[in-house]
Design brief:
It is a single chain. This protein is mainly α. The chain has a domain of 433 residues. The chain has a two-stranded antiparallel sheet with strand order 1-2. Helix 3 runs antiparallel to helix 9 and helix 3 runs antiparallel to helix 20. The radius of gyration is 24 Å and the shape is globular.
Length: 622
């Protein structure tokens, strides 16, 4: 786990490559592959020291949680914001009087002797002056992170029986790590698997060599700009579109349900058509149109509502059983669900209390975390049912949504300061930890592992992971300097984003824009219509989950891979049947692993020889 923190920091902060913007995390899969090979040797020569499939699954889940927490979308942002307000408060910007004095000293660092070397570098973290300055913020935020993760685990526990045993969702994202852990002999002995891995590795190798030595021809993988195709209005509104081919994504999308893949591509095309229509008619210039973020937010809330309605009997039974805690557990019920519900309530209560200590009022804090966990559940659903690897949800987390639906001045200064303090785990939700927990349940179920052992592993990861981040990441910042040329711009950009946004909230006066509300209701309604059509019309091809995801950054990068994989899968099922599809599964699993392994090779080579490695995902724009 410490090595993974250092790996993520150097790749994402120093070299600006996104190792945690798609699941499964490629570096965690590389580690699992190495452990699988080592375990095969142990099984053969020293069987008493070998690991079972269930134990490999627990290691994989713990590493995934560590990777999610120390990612570019969570605690890397936190580390970059703890020092920023005091360090960049100037008489010119008036930050000191505007909000710095309102920030709790037990969460943010104000001592110049502590943050000075953090930004300039050429120092060490391991001095009493620096450690004493970081001690209280590190402990306070670590306890918060642990509570956040354990609350997610309790919610995942409440969803396990419904999603895994009753709905039997497919979990496409975990099929590769599950096969490595549970069926290594069959997978590694498949010629189709090694054919796919070889193809992907050679493609990635040639692309990486081409970046180092341009004379070496490169395969057309990665992402490419489409701007030259859109030179005249209204088509110029589509500038910024990309087309990209990623072997790892083809492997995952091949396992995705065909109707979900088709729906995601179709809704993305319709989203692009809406943008062109807005530019042609002039609606876009009026502001707001096509309100894609608001409609997507409404769609996610609609999906949550539908899920609760369809599973109302199950969830009502869980709540009833938890309230009658003095009774014995009835048939079809589990004692763990009773404990999980009370654990989730206790976790949300603690997080709400924590938010009030930051300055947020009780009811706003409660609404904040209820919305946050609602979005977390929907991201988990995307991974469980659809298998889409990237769920960024830009501008949909509570700070952005609250200040978009109501003018910022409605909340008052203390609430807005609290929103900015929690910006670090709400900026982008692409590396969210909760989906990994439910995937861990699925993998443990498939390997007949112990749920108790999995729970222990998650609890250990929830406690240890944040502490490791605070031990390792500041060490490198004091060595390199967060504001120096040795660190990518995100060393300071993380803090600048959140507190510049806060400054805007505090200085400007906005009016209520009802367009955001109407667009949210439209997205909510469209999802309900799509869901009803899917239930009542046999063969209805459009899935509401794909509609919610259609305007996301991830679909914008991966739409071509989605189309190619869906066409290949559709052709195999149509002309070869289910047997042909199953025969090709190892090949596409090999595509994913081969791309990941070669990506890991380039990553580690860059770390060893101090050069920016080939970024196989999402890659530089060509």
């Amino acid at each position: 786990m410490p090595a993974l923190v250092a790996w993520n920091y150097h790749i994402e902060v120093i070299f600006y490559c996104f190792s945690t913007y798609a699941a499964p995390f490629f570096n965690v899969v590389c580690i699992l592959f190495a452990l699988t090979l080592l375990n095969r040797l142990l099984v053969r020569y020293v069987p008493r020291f070998s690991l079972t499939a269930a134990e490999l699954v627990i290691i994989y889940v713990m590493l995934s949680l560590q990777g999610a927490l120390c990612s570019h979308n969570m605690m890397q942002i936190l580390i970059g914001t703890i020092c920023y307000p005091a360090a960049y408060a100037r008489p010119e910007n008036g930050w000191q009087e505007l909000f710095v004095e309102r920030l709790p000293e037990w969460l943010f660092i104000r001592r110049e002797s502590v943050y000075h070397d953090f930004y300039l570098g050429n120092s060490t973290y391991w001095t009493w002056e620096h450690l004493s300055g970081w001690l209280m913020p590190a402990l306070s935020w670590s306890i918060f992170c642990t509570a956040l993760l354990l609350t997610m685990y309790c919610l995942a526990r409440l969803l396990r029986r419904r999603w895994i045993h009753q709905e039997r969702l497919s979990y496409p994202v975990v099929q590769l790590p599950l096969a490595l852990a549970s069926q290594p002999r069959a997978l590694l002995g498949s010629r189709m698997f090694w054919a796919g891995a070889t193809v992907a590795a050679l493609l990635s190798l040639s692309a990486g060599l081409h970046e180092l030595y341009p004379a070496v021809p490169a395969a057309p993988i990665g992402r490419y700009s489409m701007d030259k195709m859109f030179t005249e209005p209204p088509w110029t509104v589509l500038r910024g579109m990309r087309w990209g081919i990623y072997p790892w994504a083809l492997g995952i999308f091949f396992l995705m349900p065909l109707d979900l893949a088709f729906s995601a591509f179709l809704f993305y095309v319709l989203f692009c058509a809406e943008r062109v229509l807005g530019a042609y008619t002039g609606w876009s210039s009026a502001g707001g149109y096509p309100w894609s973020t608001d409609r997507a937010f409404g769609a996610y809330i609609g999906l949550l509502f539908m899920g609760l309605w369809v599973g109302r009997q199950h969830f009502a039974g869980v709540v009833t059983d938890a309230l009658a805690f003095w009774r014995r557990v009835g048939p079809g019920q589990e004692r763990g669900e009773r404990l999980a519900l009370w654990g989730a309530i206790a976790g949300i209560a603690y997080l709400t209390w924590f938010a009030t200590q930051v300055g947020i009022t009780v009811w706003v804090a409660l609404a904040f975390f209820l919305l946050y966990f609602a979005l977390a559940i929907m991201m988990t659903r995307i991974r469980a049912e659809m298998g889409f690897p990237t769920h960024d949800l830009h501008y949909m987390a509570p700070p952005q949504t609250f200040t978009r639906l109501l003018p910022p001045q409605t909340y008052g200064v203390p609430n807005l300061v609290g929103f900015a303090s929690f910006w670090w785990f709400n900026r982008v939700l692409a590396s969210h930890p909760m989906p990994h927990m439910l995937e861990g349940y699925k993998m443990t179920t498939e390997t007949n592992g112990s749920m108790v052992a999995l729970r222990r592993g998650v609890i250990i990861a929830a406690i240890v992971a944040p502490l490791l981040v605070f031990l390792i990441v500041p060490h490198y910042y004091y060595q390199y300097g967060a504001a120096s040329g040795r660190v990518n711009t995100w060393g300071t950009q993380f803090g600048r984003e959140g507190f510049t946004m806060l400054e805007g909230w505090l200085r400007r006066v906005d009016r209520l824009d009802r367009g955001h509300w109407w667009a949210t209701l439209v997205g909510f309604g469209i999802v309900l219509v799509l869901g009803a059509a899917r239930v009542r019309l046999i063969g209805w091809p459009l899935h509401p989950l794909s509609y919610a995801l259609s305007n996301s950054w991830g679909v914008e990068q991966l739409w071509l891979c989605l189309l190619i994989a869906a066409m290949i899968k559709g052709a195999l099922l149509r002309w070869g049947g289910l047997r042909a599809y199953r025969q090709w599964i190892p090949f596409f699993l090999g595509l994913t692993l081969g791309d990941f392994l070669m990506g890991g090779f380039w990553n580690l080579s860059g770390l060893a020889f101090d050069f920016r490695p080939y970024d196989f995902w999402p890659g530089i724009i060509k």
